[in-house]
Design goal:
By secondary structure, the protein is mainly β. Helix content is 3%, strand content 42%.
Length: 349
């Protein structure tokens, strides 16, 4: 475990970068700005180690970018329609930062704040605990929210991400980790990556990428990733949902047999042999094929990331759940504790 300065925000807050490694090739670097994973390195089938996530080299670029690379997303990951919801008959209006809608916590979501950091050690892992207090009224959300995120790098080449939160007023919460993966470690697009998602259904969206409230079977269509399939195999199919998202930008309803960790997805890069298996306690997974990445802000080593240069697999509750009573609830009430765990397990084939 090491700690080093990474820069200063425009508001004058110092930002540090922490490095966690396990001696088996898995190394994680995390910023206190946004709880951002700035790099995540793992070996390929030959043992060569490379960085597998998109990001930037400077704090200034993270401050300027709007791609959310590697950040913690909250209070509410994904979209809330009309930037409003009601709790117990009272309407709450949020910041509208995606047209008329609210996206990823608003203009100053959890990705834009500096978190308090404290390293910790366990028998089989090293970790970093991040804490932040979101004040009542932030971006329009009710209640003071105490949030903790714990990153752990295990000896089994796993990254474990644990979220925990409490509130003093009823408020919706939906947290996720927004790393964009490219398992080649060398750049290019992710269209030849093989993907499997353990989901028989997805939530279709309208023109604003807001769920319609339906659950749509994936069988036989371009959203059927129940077997390993290249991400690019059907991404150009004439399909209204793909047109609306400019590719994949959709929530999948994970198959679950009960609470606890369930296998959500597997990503395989055939050339390097790297694999990523994702397990989660969450009911959904957002597949985002990097359709809106436009290269305006420099990536690492001066690269300009283009569309589909990375893939996000965001474990989550469903988008716009506060406005869909039929979706799993995201409401956190005083006296209750929000908990969520996702495990990213790296390997080779």
């Amino acid at each position: 475990m090491s700690r080093a300065p990474f820069g200063t925000t425009p508001a004058g807050d110092a930002v540090d970068v922490f490095t966690l490694a396990n001696g088996h090739g898995l190394e994680l670097r995390v910023l206190t700005f946004g709880g951002t994973i700035v790099s995540l390195s793992a070996p390929d089938a030959k043992g060569d180690v490379a960085d597998l996530v998109l990001g930037h080299d400077s704090l200034e670029d993270y401050v300027r970018d709007t791609s959310y690379f590697g950040a913690i997303i909250g209070r509410y990951a994904n979209r809330i329609a009309g930037a409003r919801f009601a709790i117990d008959g009272k309407t709450h209006r949020l910041t509208a930062n995606d047209g008329p809608n609210h996206l990823h916590g608003g203009r100053t979501g959890f990705d834009r704040v500096v978190w308090r950091a404290e390293p910790f050690h366990a028998e089989d892992s090293s970790g970093l605990a991040l804490r932040y207090t979101s004040p009542d009224g932030a971006e329009g959300y009710p209640g003071n929210l105490e949030v903790q995120v714990r990153y752990r790098v295990t000896n089994r080449n796993e990254l474990m991400v644990d979220f925990q939160a409490t509130a003093d007023q009823p408020t919706p919460i939906n947290l996720t980790q927004h790393s964009c993966f490219n398992l080649t470690g060398t750049g290019g697009d992710i269209l030849s990556h093989l993907l499997r998602i353990n989901a028989d259904q997805m939530t279709p969206v309208d023109e604003h990428l807001i769920p319609t409230g339906e659950l749509m079977p994936v069988a036989g269509g371009p959203f059927d990733f129940r077997q390993l399939t290249p991400i690019g195999a059907r991404i150009a199919t004439r399909n209204e949902q793909l047109r609306r998202g400019r590719g994949y930008d959709h929530n999948f309803v994970l198959n679950r047999e009960g609470p606890g960790l369930a296998h959500a997805a597997q990503l395989v890069e055939p050339t390097s042999g790297r694999t990523l298996d994702i397990y989660t306690t969450e009911p959904g997974l957002q597949l985002y094929s990097g359709n809106f990445i436009d290269g305006r802000v420099p990536g690492k080593a001066g690269r300009r990331y283009g569309p589909r240069s990375g893939v996000c697999l965001e474990t989550q509750h469903f988008p716009d759940s506060p406005n869909h009573p039929g979706f799993p609830s995201t409401l956190l009430r005083p006296g209750d504790t929000y908990r969520s765990r996702t495990v990213f397990a790296f390997g080779v084939s």
